């Protein structure tokens, strides 16, 4: 296959990315929450801030494009609306015609499944099995889902779900020593702490899926790596984050503890505060590639440009009503009509629905023989390009699991 040239500047051969660490213990929603409850939180926020004027940088819910309900909502991250299409194009790119589907039993998952089936029906891809998941599935349901996976001849499984719903399935597959499956994951899974579970690494090796496009923010990497827990730090998340990534424990949660007074606690090494973030594997932490940091970075620039335009407009020429008596609705106009290149060269603007350009990177989780692992950029989907150029995959960069060195076959 001829390799395209549409890979974004930051997606260089051999480059890696990291998906953000969830500093809460465990993956995904808390046990008392349902995944759909967590997904709906942005709706509550958007309703309460419906007359706001700050760009959102984290919610991908398609419903938020409804300008009747959310007239002022704009976002610098992509909507999830087109993610099923992106996943289907990955399947088509690799020539797979026989796949299985695992989907969350939530609005998010059921909508994704429905859209995937629509795309597959027009492209000649057949579905071997379809199973819905929930975090509290009974043992019988888990076993039935595992049987569907193991008994199917489909080598490729599309997962449109959340990590808490999938963990029990994965653990059972590991227990049965099942290998040889290729996992194509939705962004909700690619960005989850599921990949921190070492017991699942062999099974997950080669997993591929779309993630939010990000680029290096000037000086941000150095800033991140200089971050240290201290008594003077106002960031309440640094210390639990430190425990999570370095697998250590603070002896005193209120004050910084020196190494000499912070010995092993219950078998867990004591945190010293002198641990180096640079020593962490890039799949755990990489200050150069933090996706939501980049969308927040873009949101700040949109706001700054809007303020600049408002303050510099000339009411005498009919350009605006002036900066006197500054009101949110005055600024909102300039937020919505923003169109510029940010400092790293990405074009920022919003369509009539408040959505930014739908550009996502394709990540591939790779496990090396020595146990090191990484997320590697292997392609990009850019909805602004012509149809035959929207998805570009660099096949030679893809790492396949279970000892395979080339694309797995998955046909009837």
From TrEMBL:
GO MF annotation: an example: G protein-coupled receptor activity
Keywords: Cell membrane, G-protein coupled receptor, Glycoprotein, Membrane, Receptor, Signal, Transducer, Transmembrane, Transmembrane helix
Example of a GO cellular component annotation carried by this entry: plasma membrane
Intracellular or extracellular location(s): Cell membrane
Domain annotation Receptor ligand binding region: ranges: 57-366
Annotated membrane topology: Multi-pass membrane protein
InterPro entries named among the record's database cross-references: ANF_lig-bd_rcpt, GPCR_3, GPCR_3_Ca_sens_rcpt-rel, Peripla_BP_I
PANTHER family assigned: CALCIUM-SENSING RECEPTOR-RELATED, G-PROTEIN COUPLED RECEPTORS FAMILY 3 PROFILE DOMAIN-CONTAINING PROTEIN
Stated name of the protein: Receptor ligand binding region domain-containing protein
């Amino acid at each position: 296959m001829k390799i395209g040239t549409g890979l974004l500047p930051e997606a260089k051969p051999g480059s890696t990315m990291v998906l953000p660490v969830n500093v809460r213990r465990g993956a995904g929603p808390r046990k008392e929450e349902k995944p759909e409850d967590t997904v709906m939180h942005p709706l509550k926020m958007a309703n309460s801030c419906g007359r706001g004027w700050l760009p959102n940088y984290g919610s991908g819910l398609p419903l938020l494009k409804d300008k009747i309900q959310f007239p002022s909502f704009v976002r610098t991250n992509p909507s999830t609306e087109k993610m099923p299409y992106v996943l289907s194009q990955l399947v088509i790119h690799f020539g797979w015609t026989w796949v299985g589907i695992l989907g969350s039993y939530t609005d998010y998952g059921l909508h994704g499944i429905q859209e995937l089936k629509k795309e597959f029906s027009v492209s000649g891809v057949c579905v071997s099995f379809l199973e819905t998941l929930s975090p509290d599935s009974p043992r019988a349901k888990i076993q039935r889902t595992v049987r569907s996976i193991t008994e199917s001849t489909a080598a490729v499984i599309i997962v449109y779900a959340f990590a808490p719903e999938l963990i029990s399935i994965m653990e059972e597959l590991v227990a049965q020593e099942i290998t040889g499956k290729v996992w194509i994951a939705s962004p909700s899974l690619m960005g989850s702490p599921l990949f921190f579970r070492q017991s699942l690494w062999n099974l997950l090796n080669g997993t591929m899926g779309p993630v939010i496009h990000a680029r290096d923010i000037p000086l941000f990497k150095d800033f991140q790596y200089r971050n240290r827990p201290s008594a003077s730090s106002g960031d309440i998340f640094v210390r639990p984050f430190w425990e999570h990534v370095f697998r250590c424990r603070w002896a005193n949660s209120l004050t910084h503890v020196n190494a000499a007074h912070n010995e092993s606690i219950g078998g867990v090494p004591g945190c010293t505060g002198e641990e180096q973030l640079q020593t962490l594997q890039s799949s755990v932490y990489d200050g150069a590639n933090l996706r939501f940091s980049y969308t927040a970075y873009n949101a700040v620039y949109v706001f700054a440009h809007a303020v600049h335009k408002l303050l510099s407009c000339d009411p005498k020429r009919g350009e605006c009503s002036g900066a006197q008596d500054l009101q949110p609705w005055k600024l909102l106009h300039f937020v919505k009509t923003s169109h510029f290149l940010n400092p790293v060269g990405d074009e920022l603007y919003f369509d009539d629905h408040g959505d930014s350009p739908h550009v996502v990177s394709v990540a591939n989780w790779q496990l090396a023989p020595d146990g090191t692992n990484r997320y590697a950029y292997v392609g990009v989907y850019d909805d602004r390009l012509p149809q035959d150029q929207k998805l570009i995959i660099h096949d030679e960069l893809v790492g396949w699991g279970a000892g395979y060195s080339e694309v797995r076959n998955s046909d009837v």
